[in-house]
């Protein structure tokens, strides 16, 4: 996980944030899959897109460590 990221588990959710950039995304556990429905409703900038890619990797790593996926 990148050093400037924060990963938190809240029930069936994994929240990944980058406080220095004011970015955050919440992934929901749906069966053995992580989904982030809010991402489908946006047109991210290049910086946001880079964050979302890195956040997905961090969320997947956390989900694997929890045995979710």
Quick take:
30% of the residues lie in helices and 32% in strands. It has 69 residues and is of the alpha+beta class.
Share of helical residues: 25-40%
- Spans of at least 5 consecutive residues with low confidence: none
Mean pLDDT: 86
Count of helical regions: 1
End-to-end separation in angstroms reads 17 Å
Q: What Rg, in angstroms, do the CA atoms define?
A: 11 Å
Total beta strand runs? 4
Order of helices and strands: EEEEH
State which percent range the strand residues make up.
Answer: 25-35%
Produce the secondary structure layout:
Layout: E1 6-10, E2 13-18, E3 23-30, E4 33-35, H1 46-66
Structure description:
- With 69 residues, the chain is an alpha+beta fold.
- The protein is 30% helix and 32% strand.
- It contains one helix and four strands; from the N terminus they run E-E-E-E-H.
- It has one helix spanning 46-66, and strands spanning 6-10, 13-18, 23-30, 33-35.
- A four-stranded antiparallel β-sheet has the order 1-2-3-4, covered by helices on one side.
- The longest helix is centred in the last third of the chain and has 21 residues, at 46-66.
- It is globular.
- It starts with 5 loop residues before the first strand and ends with a helix.
- 14% of the residues are buried.
- The model has no long low-confidence stretch (mean pLDDT 86).
What key attributes describe this structure?
single chain, 69 residues, alpha+beta, 4 strands, 32% strand, globular
């Amino acid at each position: 996980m990148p050093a400037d990221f924060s990963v938190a588990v809240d029930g069936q959710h994994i929240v990944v944030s980058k406080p220095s950039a004011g970015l955050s995304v919440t992934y929901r556990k749906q069966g053995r899959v992580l989904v982030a429905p809010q991402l489908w409703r946006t047109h991210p900038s290049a910086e946001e897109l880079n964050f979302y890619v890195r956040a997905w990797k961090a969320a997947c790593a956390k989900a694997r460590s929890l045995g979710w996926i």
